[in-house]
């Protein structure tokens, strides 16, 4: 896909996210809307991934460590053709492949079952270590939430990534400043994330507008530093694209009703 078409794709996928969560009457719209540019930049602008060969051993892998943003992941997988878009209406329904958190045993294209925060980035670190050991040229990307960085396992994984010189590993942080119980600063201040990851041995970049695909791609295109893992902190807006959801902690895990769905879709150009 041409990179200039990616912003329009993001808007389309935001509509899919709203419809998915409204149909399921459950889900996490805020963090799904804030992360979509990151996933689009990876799947459609950066990663070595052929949808016709989804299990190619040398494919790049994306681990959605913030698994509650599954609607954003499913929207991308549907656009790639790895799942049928008709399945969106089954989101969070009994026996559906599209559960509230991604399940690699049910849903094609899901690399890791995630949900318990911090475990995805730890698994991604192990995947990168395994790829190095096998001489596999693939790159591993893990997408984390900022509240997730309050989990100790994130820093254990970071320490291991630097120790094992995993330059085939990139963490992307969805830094929207909000989590389920309030702001990051109210719940557990993260301090200076850039300095923290640098102190753990990462090359760390900050994307000032993490809801701008081009800015994310520019960071992803930065050459890898030999022997060092990379962290890209994306400054995002929770609920991005829907005015009444933006920067509102109440939309962390609440589905829109029918009136709110229609209002959101109008703002997103439907």
Folded structure, characterized:
With about 270 residues, the chain is α/β, with parallel strands linked by helices. It has a single domain, classed as Thiamin diphosphate (ThDP)-binding fold, Pyr/PP domains (Rossmann fold), CATH 3.40.50.970. It contains nine helices and seven strands, in the order ααβααβαβββααβαβα. The strands form two sheets. A five-stranded parallel beta sheet has the order 1-2-3-7-6, sandwiched between helices. A two-stranded antiparallel ribbon has the order 4-5. It is globular, with a radius of gyration of 17 Å.
In short:
Helix content is 39%, strand content 12%. It has 270 residues and is α/β, with parallel strands linked by helices. The two termini are 22 Å apart.
Q: Largest beta sheet: what is the strand line-up?
A: 1-2-3-7-6
Tell me the series of helices and strands, N- to C-terminal. HHEHHEHEEEHHEHEH
Q: Strand pairing plus helix content: what structural class?
A: alpha/beta
CATH architecture: 3-Layer(aba) Sandwich
CATH superfamily: Thiamin diphosphate (ThDP)-binding fold, Pyr/PP domains
Please indicate the count of domains.
1
- Range of strand content: 5-15%
CATH secondary-structure class: Alpha Beta
Radius of gyration: 17 Å
The percent range for helix content is 25-40%
Shape: globular
CATH topology: Rossmann fold
Quote the distance from N terminus to C terminus: 22 Å
Major sheet summary line: 5 strands, parallel
Uncertain parts = none
């Amino acid at each position: 896909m041409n990179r200039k078409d990616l912003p329009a794709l993001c808007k389309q996928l935001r509509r899919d996210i709203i419809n998915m969560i409204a149909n399921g009457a459950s889900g996490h719209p805020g963090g799904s809307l804030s992360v979509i540019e990151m996933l689009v930049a990876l799947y459609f602008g950066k990663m070595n991934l052929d949808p016709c060969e989804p299990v190619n051993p040398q494919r790049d892998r994306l681990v959605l460590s913030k698994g509650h943003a599954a609607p954003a992941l499913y929207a991308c997988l549907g656009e790639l053709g790895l799942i049928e878009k008709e399945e969106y209406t089954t989101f969070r329904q009994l026996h559906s492949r599209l559960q509230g958190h991604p399940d690699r045993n049910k849903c094609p294209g899901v690399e890791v079952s995630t949900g318990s925060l911090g475990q995805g980035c730890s698994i991604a670190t192990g995947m990168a270590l395994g790829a190095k050991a096998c001489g596999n040229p693939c790159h591993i990307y893990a997408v984390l939430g900022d509240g997730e960085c309050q989990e100790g396992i994130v820093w254990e994984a970071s320490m291991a990534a630097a120790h094992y010189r995993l330059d085939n590993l990139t963490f992307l942080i969805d830094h929207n400043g909000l989590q389920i119980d309030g702001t990051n600063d109210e719940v557990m201040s993260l301090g200076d994330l850039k300095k923290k990851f640098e102190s753990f041995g990462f090359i760390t970049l900050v994307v000032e507008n993490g809801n701008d695909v081009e800015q994310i791609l520019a960071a992803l295109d930065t050459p890898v530093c030999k022997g060092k893992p990379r962290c890209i902190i994306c400054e995002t807006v929770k609920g991005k694209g829907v005015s009444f959801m933006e920067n509102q902690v109440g939309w962390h895990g609440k589905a829109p009703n029918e009136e709110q769905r229609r209002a959101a879709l109008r703002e997103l150009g439907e």
